[in-house]
Amino acid sequence: MKILGIAAPFGHDASAALLVDGKVVAAVEEERFSRRKHAKDECPRQSVKFCLETAGLKPQDIDAVAFPWALSALRQRRWEYFFRTFVSNPSRAYKKFFRNMKEYRGQAAFIARTLRESGFDKHQPQIHWIEHHIAHAASSYFLSGFKTAAVLSIDGGGEITSTLIGRAEGAAISKIKEIVAPDSLGNFYSTMTEYLGFEREDGEYKVMGMAPYGDAWKVNLDHILWWNPRRRTYRCNDDYVWVPRSKRARPDKVYSRKMIKEFGPEREGDELNVPYIHIAAATQRKLEDTTIRLLETYLAQELKSHGNLCFAGGCALNVSLNRILLKHPLVKNLWVQPSSHDAGGSIGAAAYAAAQLGDKIAPMEHVYLGPEFTNAQIEPVLKASGFRFEKCADICETASSLLKDGKIVGWFQGRMEWGPRALGNRSILGNPTIRGTNDRINAIIKFRESWRPFCPSMLKEYASDILGSDHPAPFMTFAFDVAPHWKERIPEAVHVDGTCRPQVVDERHNPKFHRLISLFHKKTRVPVVINTSLNRRGEPMICSPQDAILMFRESGLEYLAIGDYLVKKS
Ligand SMILES: [Fe+2]
């Protein structure tokens, strides 16, 4: 079957993914084409076109379209939402209860527009409406390769649900527990993210990066998010979390005046300061403790029998949380969808629909599912750019020598990555052994907060020695404690708490990147490079050679290894 997944239903992170006979052949986020981060209010028309072109298909070849939103999910749980909110927020309660057809029509219009703008004028495929959290769970379970697994999906909120806990076997995902908004771990974390001075639904990873600098015990958030043992669930305080307009400190922010009164004004600037570092630490701690509580309450029996956990939803991008999950005695194998946020809904909905239609879903072994460009396509762009460039006999050899000498190198090769992490095809690389490498990357191109860590990519053959773990980690979705004897050797890859968020590079899935690191290892005896995404601050990851040249021109980057070419400024 040829199943096209499109996303996303909530006005951000539009994407498309295509499964042919159970195998993901293409997946991409619209932001990479439109060059607007998170593709707000865009439909994924360029992404759909790319998916069809990659597979050599026409719209009429598509058997079904899958979308990660379902009216049934909204209807089933609207009473629960109504009773939960009609005192604290009556207007939201009534809106959600009575306007669900309006919501449905909005989603149907989004799908119709996407298909129309993607060339589906005559052919109208069958639409599979997949519950939002089932799509998240499916994006992890079906692509994990596990036969049986416990599944966890946590985000800000889908149709109405914010947390789904379940089990999966064969083609079925069954629910064990659902938690309905406004009780929402994702919204709690996003609200705190905004209060801490970052953009919500974007800067959550910065709160996570800030957390190790603070002391979680110095701030009490128990009145904002707490565990209710009688109901065996968590609760959020409606006076603090994603508050209605009447309670907001500022109309465009979702934290409340009460929050300001209690903790002080919203954090500003790029520095680390008290009490905000402690608030970040307490926020992270709440997320971790509550998730572990959910796991132990609802999944203990399930995990005792096989130990496989699949995790997705926006909160699954929190690598520090995943580190805690991975350390839990019930969890033997953890698989996290690399695109766990709403962009991953396209791949999840498509995988779920394909499985229901009888396809066997192939595990997702790599993320190289986006556009690629040949030397013949790259060279004219370089010629037109006016930059000095040369064709190298061995670009890996050239780039590894530059890295050895402490140079920062843009690395553009093969198919662009699916998901927010650069995994060696659209990367900026540096030498982790030279102190100051991260500062230089920040100074010439990234301009990010100086306290935020950079991630390492390491050869699979040495990963267990560096990380003290054999657990697969191909997608930068987990943090690990760095072994003491490596901390001094790769200081630029280690965060202040002694952890790193690695990509373990397997030759099978990215031979060119593996070879580059191998050559660097040969020259330095260190099998690790610093790897951050190829883009400037606030812009989506680079997609095309034209994007790369524009970024190169407007940044302080001096070397760009693109295809077999090395572009130089000096
Ligand atoms: Fe979601």
From TrEMBL:
What lineage is on file? Bacteria, Pseudomonadati, Candidatus Omnitrophota, Candidatus Velamenicoccus
Q: Which species does the entry assign this protein to?
A: Velamenicoccus archaeovorus
Q: Which family does it belong to?
A: Belongs to the NodU/CmcH family.
* Name of the molecule in the record: Carbamoyltransferase
Annotated GO molecular function terms are: catalytic activity
Q: Which CDD domains match?
A: ASKHA_NBD_TobZ_N
Where on the tree of life does the source sit, at the highest rank? Answer: Bacteria
Boundaries of each Carbamoyltransferase domain copy? Answer: 2-350
* SUPFAM superfamilies in the cross-refs: Actin-like ATPase domain
- Please state every residue range assigned to the domain named Carbamoyltransferase C-terminal: 401-569
Recorded hits in Pfam families, A to Z, give: Carbam_trans_C, Carbam_trans_N
